Amino acid sequence: MASVIHYTIATEAEKSPDFRRVLWTGEHTQLVIMTIPPGGEIGEEVHEVDQILTFVSGTGKAIISGSEKAVAQGDLVVVPAGKKHNFLNTGENPLILYTVYGPPEHADGAVHTTKEEADRLEEEGKDEPPTSS
Q1: Has residue 131 got a pLDDT over 80?
Q2: What are the residues facing 112 on neighbouring strands?
């Protein structure tokens, strides 16, 4: 019998200082927490997967396909596969969020301390999602 996988997600996200930390990877989805420092950003990107982001604390700006929207605690933003997007921290405190990718986008268990580390590992091909069997 499988055990219940449970997170107090705001607490998990708040206690992680890392830019990106993969909490859980399933066959069809992946749960990731992110902390964007003041003045920082996720970086403009396009995924081949759907992404749902929920903001835990801080203030920021979502840019999806050229449209901008302010985001703050409690907001949820959907990024459909293939849409160019970026999220910027516009506040004085970290912008903290959790995101669900479907299917997984990052390596199972990945921890990227900084955006620079995350970018480098992606470029080196060391942040690939698990392949489905």
Answers
A1: no
A2: 20
- Running DSSP on this structure, what letter comes out for residue 10? H
According to the model, what pLDDT value does residue 81 have? 94
Confidence of residue 132 (pLDDT cuts 50, 70, 90): low
Give percent above pLDDT 70 in the chain. Answer: 97
Write down the pLDDT at residue 133.
47
Give yes or no for a contact between 52 and 100, defined as CB atoms under 8 angstroms apart: yes
SS3 103: coil
Token code pair at residue 116: 């620079």
Do residues 73 and 57 make contact, with C-beta atoms less than 8 angstroms apart? yes
Q: Which residues contact 98 (CB under 8 A, 6 or more apart)?
A: 9, 12, 13, 23, 31, 32, 33, 34, 53, 54, 56
DSSP for residue 45: B
